[in-house]
Amino acid sequence: MTRDIIVGVLALQGAFYEHIKLLQQAATEVALNDGQRWKFAEIRTVEELERCEALIIPGGESTTVSLVAARSNMLEPLRDFVKVRRKPTWGTCAGLILLAESANRTKKGGQDLIGGLDVKVNRNYFGRQTESFEAPLALPFLRSKVGEDGSDRFNGIFIRAPVVEKLLPVIRGEQTGEGAFDETVIAPAKAAEGEKAKKQVLRPVEVMATLPGRSRTLKEKIVALGMADEVGDIVAVKQGNVFGTSFHPELTEDARIHIWWLEQVRDTLEDQDQDR
Amino acid sequence: MAINDSHTNGAAARSTTNSTTTTTTANSSTSSPTDFKLKAGLAQMLKGGVIMDVVNASQARIAEEAGACAVMALERVPADIRAEGGVSRMSDPAMIKEIMATVTIPVMAKARIGHFVECQILEALGVDYIDESEVLTPADMVHHVEKGPFGVPFVCGCRNLGEALRRIDEGAAMIRTKGEAGTGDVVEAVRHMRTVTSEINRAKNMSDMELRVYAKELNCSFALLKQTAELGRLPVVNFAAGGVATPADAALMMQLGCDGVFVGSGIFKSGDAVKRAKAIVQAVTHFRDAKVLAAVSEGLGEAMVGLNVGRMKEGEKMAGRGW
């Protein structure tokens, strides 16, 4: 019997189709055990989410996705998916904002977050559309070092992009310390269930990509925000099996990150299966 | 890159003026592929969303809270433009700036067809998208704005495939239907979407030789027509616009293949704007789920009064503006 490994892409709003296309391309490179096969699905309802082993939250408008999720009764099930059962999840741009435990510069009155990554995200850090940009990124974690264009860099596309402003202490409850700041929202706490999930949520946050030099060119802005500028802007982070990028791999034709991420998903599943 | 923006914008504005005065052939090659990817990329982020017309900051906040993925700042909604007549122009920069300062979602603004100086002003304000729109009074009865050299992306209306590809050739990074704005009658938007789809379907089975003839017939670029035929869809995001008044209208346009929906007068000219705005947002996400559509369509109060496009004189229609 064939077992489908269903990877969902949240399809409430945004560039979900682009992720599915790249996942299909990546799947040919990521072998599964005999009898297993990848399946990719657009997710709009709780029933559809329940069938998923892993999830991508795509780029879009985070305000819209958050409001539509709440009105479609998806917000709590999503928190359950990411934080309680701790299934592999990846958010790009708006998805990164939603996966952050804390965010600032959101709309008036704040916005609901899902949480899952102990970071603080600055929404629209890079400004409006006329400040959107592309930048070659070094991503040493990729297995296939060189892309189809022969470059060892990954073309990062940043559109009205957020940035990870701060790595937060890994704690069990809410990031109440951050919640005390003005105009900063935090995600509600959810206790992880099961040993594996508990371990995953207490993993440290790893910085997966930065924009070196970027912080130098933006020096004025950063001084104004009172930020340290030593490391360069953080544009990708991972905490256990939850991953976030402030750029849009789904707007490229380069499937290297999708391949890497599907391998991570596969390894997580194998790890679970061994316990059964 | 962000840091050089004011500089490049200035250059873009200058080269626009030059290209408009010194050359008559449409050519988007002045925009680098990088720029175009970023411009078209923002439109991709808006997909599956609703862009709402707003005339002030408080309406913009209502739209943002309702879940709009962007707002379109304009001085009068199309229904009022129709009722009041006169020349309709780009909005007051002060109003646009106030809206930009009030909401965190992207802010679009309208410029008159062919009025590249209004576009330069909107770019200088830092709006996220410009709509070169037939809803405003055209400033040029022959030329459209040369959009490629601008740093800010453009959306343009179309009634058919040829018109869509002409706009893309000029540098538009997003397309919308040209439904009769301010009427609450969706019939024209449906006609435009169906026309574009059927023309793409025809192109899909054509050889290069046939495509060259078809490009002449549609009065568009062969290269763009070929790209469209290969993709089986427009090469940029395509939204519905004009006459969308109900959640059912919005879902209809989505099921016809649109990537998202603009709603103009339909929201703030209706009885309960907040409820209707939320309902249309839900309808665009769950556009194939009739149960959700039924639920959100309940008790919305009065829809905008509406004008029947079939009974309008040709001169009253806006869709005919644009060339």
TrEMBL record, chain A:
Keyword Hydrolase assigned: yes
Enzyme class of the recorded protein, top EC level: hydrolase
InterPro entries listed in its UniProt record: Class_I_gatase-like, PdxT/SNO, PdxT/SNO_CS
Residue ranges of coiled coil: none
EC number(s) given by UniProt: 3.5.1.2
Keywords assigned: Glutamine amidotransferase, Hydrolase, Lyase
SUPFAM superfamilies registered for this protein in UniProt: Class I glutamine amidotransferase-like
Catalytic activities: L-glutamine + H2O = L-glutamate + NH4(+)
Family classification: Belongs to the glutaminase PdxT/SNO family.
PANTHER family the record matches: PYRIDOXAL 5'-PHOSPHATE SYNTHASE SUBUNIT SNO, PYRIDOXAL 5'-PHOSPHATE SYNTHASE SUBUNIT SNO1-RELATED
NCBIfam families: PLP_synth_Pdx2 (TIGR03800)
Designated name of the protein: glutaminase
Organism whose genome encodes this protein: Stereocaulon virgatum
Automatic annotation (TrEMBL), chain B:
Superkingdom per UniProt: Eukaryota
Keyword Lyase part of the UniProt annotation: yes
Protein name as it appears in the record: pyridoxal 5'-phosphate synthase (glutamine hydrolyzing)
Region (Disordered) residue spans: 1-34
All residue ranges annotated as the PdxS/SNZ N-terminal domain in the record: 36-241
UniProt feature, compositional bias: Low complexity: 8-34
InterPro entries linked: Aldolase_TIM, PdxS/SNZ, PdxS/SNZ_N, RibuloseP-bd_barrel
Keywords recorded for this protein, A-Z: Lyase, Pyridoxal phosphate, Schiff base
Pathway: Cofactor biosynthesis; pyridoxal 5'-phosphate biosynthesis
EC number(s) given by UniProt: 4.3.3.6
Family membership noted in the UniProt record: Belongs to the PdxS/SNZ family.
Catalyzed reactions: aldehydo-D-ribose 5-phosphate + D-glyceraldehyde 3-phosphate + L-glutamine = pyridoxal 5'-phosphate + L-glutamate + phosphate + 3 H2O + H(+)
Signal peptide bounds: none
Keyword Lyase belongs to the record: yes
